[in-house]
Amino acid sequence: MSDVSAVKALVFDVFGTVVDWRSSLIVDFTKWGAARGINADWTALVDAWRGVYMASMDEVRKHPERGYVILDALHRRSLEKLVAQFDIKGLTEADLDYLTRGWHRLNPWPDSVSGLTRLKTKFIISPLSNGNVALLTNMAKFAGLPWDLVLSAELFEHYKPDSETYLGAAKLLCLPPEQVMMVAAHNNDLKAAQKLGLKTAFVARPTEYGPHQKYDFEAKGDWDIVAKDFTGIADRMGC
Amino acid sequence: MSDVSAVKALVFDVFGTVVDWRSSLIVDFTKWGAARGINADWTALVDAWRGVYMASMDEVRKHPERGYVILDALHRRSLEKLVAQFDIKGLTEADLDYLTRGWHRLNPWPDSVSGLTRLKTKFIISPLSNGNVALLTNMAKFAGLPWDLVLSAELFEHYKPDSETYLGAAKLLCLPPEQVMMVAAHNNDLKAAQKLGLKTAFVARPTEYGPHQKYDFEAKGDWDIVAKDFTGIADRMGC
């Protein structure tokens, strides 16, 4: 069993790991679309939107000379393209804003709040997400996530899995990487964190992508903790 | 009466405004010194330490080519000089670290936690302090301060009252300055914030400097709110 006794802070991937973005957005938009009289396949829109997520961050990574662009702005750009592509009619500026801010209104997985609350009694807990600071702050208030602070890719002007994010988080916490544990439902996120000396915890979220889930059904690496959910992480961390 | 209805976030000065640094440090060090067998005038040390605070930040401001230095490091440098000056004997490396981290272990004023808890129900609440992120995070856990996020001068690599701090906070929150209210017990902090378009709230903390308090007994500006304590701010903000 891996030694995690030196860990002082746990930092969490958020989309998929802490919150169920897909179901949240589909339910929110379907209800809103019906009330607003906007006809669209909201499920397809949500899946397509998340489908271009990685590519939109790659664009920022490839063009540092254009400056860092926060996730809210990437979401908005992608949405405008998808609205045209899906031929969704009648959306105003305020509607586009409402949809983009849907990413601030995501529901936690059933174990997230209770697990975080337990972990907070012994450890510093923070998101370490590609979401921007305002997005993560608004989401925490919406979902009741009891973060001690909000660490975001925005603070380092680099998206995960760039090393600046993991090392930047440890630096702001004034902790060596081995005293920080990255928690994620995504093996690639943990792989990047582990390479830099952080401790790692994996939770499976096998319904994150609904019927389109292709990977991350299970741990694919030598992670310090592998748990079913945040309850399992809190148990393992002695909270 | 000033219109504060557009405010979405309140950001707080911390040392003196939220926590009683002077009494906290004097009590902590006196108790620790007795147990550790270190003889010193801890009250004089604390007053002298705070006395060089402004000058230590001015050094960073004057020498941007040396890079930003976090407050923990400035505190440590100042302490080493004062220990020599006060001729305090027998301090180990661990002792100097303990004393420096005294600034992470500060008690809130009696109204702080209840006032913040009320304000948090309607607004985003965050420190906006010259303390570094780890210092503010550790202090929040020690003192039970229910911040939504932790904004610090460290994130902007500028100390207050540099404009980068106030505008940087608004930018990270994705809010225009007029939707952010600066709360402080120091008129000069509010003056800098108001000049940049932030709303302002003053609370008097007339015992912050003990018998050495020279100013900030009352509001000296046209602040949007002037309150006796955080209870008064929560009342005024309709929480």
SSE map:
The structure is a homodimer of 239-residue chains.
Chain A: E1 9-12, H1 21-36, H2 42-51, H3 53-62, H4 71-85, H5 93-100, H6 112-120, E2 124-129, H7 133-143, E3 151-152, H8 153-156, H9 163-172, E4 180-184, H10 187-195, E5 199-203, E6 225-227, H11 230-236
Parallel strand pairs in A: 1-2, 1-4, 2-3, 4-5, 5-6
Helix pairs in contact in A: 1-2, 4-5, 6-11
Mean pLDDT of chain A: 97
Instruction: Quickly count the helices of chain A.
Output: 11
* Rounded radius of gyration of chain A (Å): 18 Å
**Secondary structural class of chain A:** alpha/beta
Q: Give the total of beta strands of chain A.
A: 6
Shape of chain A: globular
Q: What tags apply to this protein structure?
A:
globular, alpha/beta, homodimer, six-stranded parallel sheet, 6 strands, 239 residues, 11 helices
Structure write-up:
Two copies of one chain form a homodimer. Chain A has eleven helices and six strands. Chain A has helices at 21-36, 42-51, 53-62, 71-85, 93-100, 112-120, 133-143, 153-156, 163-172, 187-195, 230-236, and strands at 9-12, 124-129, 151-152, 180-184, 199-203, 225-227. Chain A has a six-stranded parallel beta sheet, with helices on both faces. The longest helix of chain A is centred in the first third of the chain and has 16 residues, at 21-36. The radius of gyration of chain A is 18 Å and the shape is globular. Chain A starts with 8 loop residues before the first strand and ends with a helix.
